Amino acid sequence: MGCGKSTLGRALAKELGWDFIDLDFYIEQRFRRTVPQLFAERGEDEFRRIESSMLREAGEFDDVVVSCGGGTPCHDDNLAYMNSRGTTVWLRATDECLLRRLTRHRERRPLLAGRSDDEIRAIITTRQAEREPHYSQANLQFPSDDLEDRRGISASVARLISLLPAFRG
Predict the structure, then answer these.
(1) Which of 110, 104, 97, 19 is nearest to 69 (CA)?
(2) How far is Cα 134 from Cα 158, in angstroms, rounded to an integer?
């Protein structure tokens, strides 16, 4: 959350001339419910089943950049599936950067709404520790602190493309 998946993913897809899929939005469009509504109505286990199914559907498309939710790689062998379909990228932002981004727009995120900076810092630390064993299986790790303006986004896209196996010279 807050590492820049949608920002960098959308810019990368545009630069490549590919489609961009935000997996949470894809799910919401299909089920006509928000992710928080699906969680509340169906529970986490059923949501994760839906998420895995929709990931596998999106993963069959050609020339697409998929931005998945932060929990997606941690369930149902999803990261192994993603690695089998293309290049996976773990966007790594510093805790300070994540805190700055997440506190700036905390009310837009149900998990963070009404929480103090210290509570958000604790969520960042806990989530990073829980998810790192999964994220570390991604093909690439890429810094995402520089996604603050157009120049930083553009430079990051160029650096990322140079690291992608399909685009190396």
Answers:
(1) 110
(2) 26
The pTM of the full predicted model, rounded to 2 decimals, is 0.91
pLDDT tens, position by position, 112-154: 889 999 999 999 999 999 999 999 999 999 999 999 999 999 9
**165: in domain:** no
In the numeric block, which tokens belong to residue 118? 């210290």
> In angstroms, rounded to a whole number, what is the distance separating the alpha carbons of residues 27 and 162?
31
Q: Is residue 84 part of a domain?
A: yes
Element (H, E) at 147: none
In DSSP notation, 12-27 reads: HHHHHT-EEEEHHHHH
**Average pLDDT rounded to a whole number, residues 30-44:** 92
Name the domain count of the chain. 1
CATH number at residue 119: 3.40.50.300
Q: Where are the beta strands (DSSP E) in the chain?
A: 19-22, 64-67, 89-92, 140-143
